[in-house]
From TrEMBL, chain A:
PROSITE patterns named among the record's database cross-references: PROKAR_LIPOPROTEIN, ZF_TFIIB
InterPro entries named in the record: BRF2-like_C, Cyclin-like_sf, TFIIB, Znf_TFIIB
UniProt lineage: Eukaryota, Metazoa, Chordata, Craniata, Vertebrata
Native source species: Caloenas nicobarica (Nicobar pigeon)
GO biological process, one term: transcription preinitiation complex assembly
Matches recorded under Pfam families: BRF2-like_C_cyclin_rpt (PF21886), Zn_Ribbon_TF (PF08271)
Keywords of this entry: Activator, Metal-binding, Nucleus, Repeat, Transcription, Transcription regulation, Zinc, Zinc-finger
Chain's role: General activator of RNA polymerase III transcription. Factor exclusively required for RNA polymerase III transcription of genes with promoter elements upstream of the initiation sites. Contributes to the regulation of gene expression; functions as activator in the absence of oxidative stress. Down-regulates expression of target genes in response to oxidative stress. Overexpression protects cells against apoptosis in response to oxidative stress.
Record keyword Transmembrane present: no
Domain of life (superkingdom): Eukaryota
GO terms for MF: TBP-class protein binding; zinc ion binding
A GO term from the CC aspect: transcription preinitiation complex
Protein name: Transcription factor IIIB 50 kDa subunit
Length: 412, 327
């Protein structure tokens, strides 16, 4: 706490509180809210115990084994944990990682900016080890850090300290991310038909995310856009009548959540998967479903998803022959279009355009031209010790007039 | 234990052919080498990985060459007296080594439970072989056929010492294929067309040559750069040519379930989809870094020799096949 006798300059009250706002210490008056000081305060020995800075004339040298930089860093880690409302055991673990990292020779001479990020990385690693769903985006925004810099520090921390960081649990991430959606309570700026029950939405979003995981939409991709797209589909499908007309951008605005740019693509991919599954459901075949109307039937599709996935997507090897035949038959037409236009034929035999192998989207639509194996005949002829002709080297040298012209132009 | 515990049933199936060799038993409990087992167990590692995600597979019943001597009790009664003493000793070893060895905790728990009652180990309900822990320390080389895929070399980085001080401004003025921007980088960037490479030439006389597709091409290119510098009037030599890094890539032609790979090979893998779509696998032997992508493309880097790339790929291919996740 602040030194006794300090009063708020605004209202004169003696009730001063330490508060950690955005992981920075602030001394705030409890009565009027006036901020007395930011950052560390220099006070007496009792403060020194709690790792705050102390004026030299009053310092007792008790905590001299900790350098100022380390003290500051530890304080920052503790404040981060308080802001994120993490349990105390996380704080201790994060501080111990931070101390270990700062003593490691690899991080001694790292810039102060990176040392700050190091504190954030330690908190992040601790959360991941305890399966607390925290994304890098959250930590970066708390630290005002660039994600590339954070990524570099995180990877080197993981390597130098040999920490094992388990994978982010998608189910926990869904629950935490949905907590930040403001659709679960009635409020003035949310239209009544948009409000949704949290339990139902979480359950359905989890199912859609699981479906995405099974159909290769999650591997290698950033998790948050997938969760956003899944939440949108879940929300729409719970009351399709009123919500079908609402686009993704508006949904995110109403929910008070950022719309990550890849979410549109994820939504498209999810809808394509759902359409394929719908083509296998007997009572849906009569409807000519498109991307809008399939949303109404998401409940049914999710209920039978295991069966539908097995039927809608065939095993790879057989599909290759189909692909060859299809490729010759209709060059250039994407399979999704064929699927939506064509009526599904019998139940037993698979239509050529109806099924495709269950592969990640990068394999279904390769954007790069697949390069053939480089011709090695030319390469193998090189021995490395061949004679080098003078003419070949001369071509790389400038003639005298050229040099004159160049030096005149560049004024070297 | 009372009744037939799963442990007993398993050993009954195996027929109780245990060697009585205590010296090898201690090997099993050293934390860093849980793999000093005979080949049959090692070969089943791959089986174990794929079986984790499918139904529990039938365990091979022929364990005649397997060393199960860490278990103190066997079918015959006459050996029990001999082993009871040894059993106590090894039990102490076991208890001591349990906290050290979290990776093979599966084995340890089973064995420690069985000791007081002199029962035998058995596979757990999940079908995982108790003798093969879940997380390997080194990737197991498959005794089966090779993959048939050869990684293509994409880039070779080499260095050479020209052993003379160079005037970079002079070089940039007299050479057509050179660029020099001292404010941006303190070296001349020179390029030649055949072999298509780039070189960084420093004023100390050291040179880095990148972009070649084979070791011989890299050497030829470096010699050409040295000749250019020679023709510009500097007494350039060609000392200490060394290949520093080789990068190769290939395609296994099936999608890979990266989440599963990072679960089982946690010590070697780093998979952060928020940062990078691929999984970074740091192989210990040979010391190669592999970037594994969901599409099945693999990039191998960090090699000093071509054989290291091939060996690394042969090591990773059976592991990747285990994560093929055919649907």
């Amino acid at each position: 706490m602040a030194a006794p006798g300090r009063r708020c300059p605004g209202c004169g009250s003696a009730e001063l509180l330490e508060d950690a706002l955005y992981a920075q210490q602030q001394l705030v008056c409890a009565a009027c809210g006036c901020v007395l000081a930011e950052g560390l305060l220099t006070t007496t020995y009792s403060e020194e115990e709690h790792r705050r800075e102390v004026a030299y004339s009053q310092s007792t040298g008790q905590k001299e084994q900790l350098s100022r930089c380390l003290q500051r860093g530890i304080r920052r880690v503790q404040d981060l944990c308080k802001v994120l409302q993490l349990p105390t055991v996380f704080e201790e673990t994060a501080v111990s990682y931070f101390q270990r990292a700062m003593q490691h020779p690899a991080f001694h001479l790292v810039s102060l900016e990176k040392k700050e990020l190091l504190g954030g990385c330690c908190v992040f690693v601790t959360c991941r080890q305890h399966n607390w769903p925290l994304t890098m985006g959250t930590i970066c925004s708390l630290l005002y850090a660039k994600q590339e810099l954070f990524a570099g520090v995180f990877l080197s921390l993981q390597k130098e300290l040999g920490l094992s960081v388990p994978a982010l649990s998608l189910a926990d991430l869904v629950k935490t991310h949905l907590n930040s959606f403001r659709l679960f309570q009635h409020s003035a700026d949310i239209p009544a038909p948009f409000v949704e029950d949290k339990e139902k939405m979480v359950a359905r979003t989890l199912q859609i995310v699981e479906l995405a995981g099974e159909t290769w939409l999650v591997t290698g991709r950033h998790p948050i856009p997938i969760v956003t797209a899944a939440a949108f589909l879940a929300w729409q499908s719970l009351q399709p009548g009123t919500r079908l007309a609402c686009p993704l951008a508006r949904f995110c605005r109403v929910a008070g959540v950022d719309l990550p740019p890849p979410a549109h693509l994820r939504l498209k991919e999810l809808l394509e998967i759902l359409l394929r599954m719908a083509s296998q459901l007997a009572w849906l075949r009569v409807f000519k479903l498109d991307k809008k109307t399939v949303v109404k039937h998401i409940g049914d599709l999710l209920q039978h998803r295991i069966f539908l996935l097995k039927n809608a997507f065939c095993v790879e090897e057989e599909e290759e022959q189909h692909a060859v035949a299809l490729g010759e038959g209709s060059p250039g037409s994407p399979r999704a279009v064929a699927q939506e236009k064509g009526c599904p034929v019998g139940i037993k035999h698979r239509q050529e355009g109806g099924t495709r192998p269950l592969l990640p989207p990068c394999l279904i639509q390769p954007r790069k031209r697949l390069r053939m194996a480089a011709p090695s005949a030319v390469d193998s002829a090189v021995s490395g010790d061949e004679p080098i002709s003078d003419s070949e080297i001369e071509q790389y040298l400038r003639g005298p007039e050229e040099i004159r012209a160049f030096s005149k132009a560049k004024a070297w | 234990m009372d009744g037939a515990s799963p442990l007993e049933r398993y050993l009954e199936r195996c027929g109780g052919q245990f060697k009585d060799d205590l010296s090898t038993s201690l090997q099993l409990f050293t934390p860093m080498s849980p793999y000093d087992l005979d080949l049959p167990i090692q070969a089943t590692e791959d089986v174990v990985f794929s079986s984790q995600f499918n139904q529990p597979k039938e365990l091979p019943t022929d364990f005649s060459s397997v060393d199960l001597s860490f278990l103190p009790d066997i079918a015959q009664d006459n050996k029990e007296q001999n082993l009871s003493k040894d059993g106590n000793e090894t039990q102490k070893e076991l208890d001591g080594s349990i906290p050290r060895n979290e990776d093979s905790s599966g084995i340890m728990d089973e064995s420690s439970l069985s000791y007081p009652d002199a029962t035998r180990p058995s596979p757990e309900a999940s079908g995982m072989c108790p003798l093969t822990p879940m997380t390997p320390m080194t990737p197991a080389t498959s005794a089966s056929e090779s993959s048939g895929i050869v990684p293509q070399l994409q880039n070779i980085v080499s260095t050479v010492n020209l052993a003379c001080k160079l005037d970079l401004k002079n070089i940039a003025l007299h050479a057509r294929n050179a660029e020099y921007n001292p404010k941006r980088f303190a070296a001349v960037i020179m390029r030649i067309r055949e072999p298509r490479t780039t070189a960084l030439i420093f004023s100390s006389g050291k040179m880095v040559c990148t972009g070649a597709k084979s070791e011989e091409q890299s050497r030829l290119a470096a010699r050409k750069y040295a000749r250019v510098v020679q023709k510009l009037g500097f007494p350039a030599k060609f000392l200490d040519f060394k290949i520093q890094n080789m990068v190769g890539s290939c395609d296994v032609r099936f999608p890979i379930w990266l989440e599963g790979l990072v679960l089982t090979h946690q010590q070697f893998s780093s998979y952060e989809p928020e940062l990078f779509p691929g999984l970074i696998y740091r192989m210990v032997k040979p010391r190669i870094v592999l970037l594994i992508f969901v599409s099945g493309k693999v990039v191998l880097t960090g090699a000093k020799e071509r054989s290291e790339i091939y060996e690394a790929f042969e090591n990773i291919y059976p592991i990747l096949k285990g994560f093929k996740k055919a649907s």
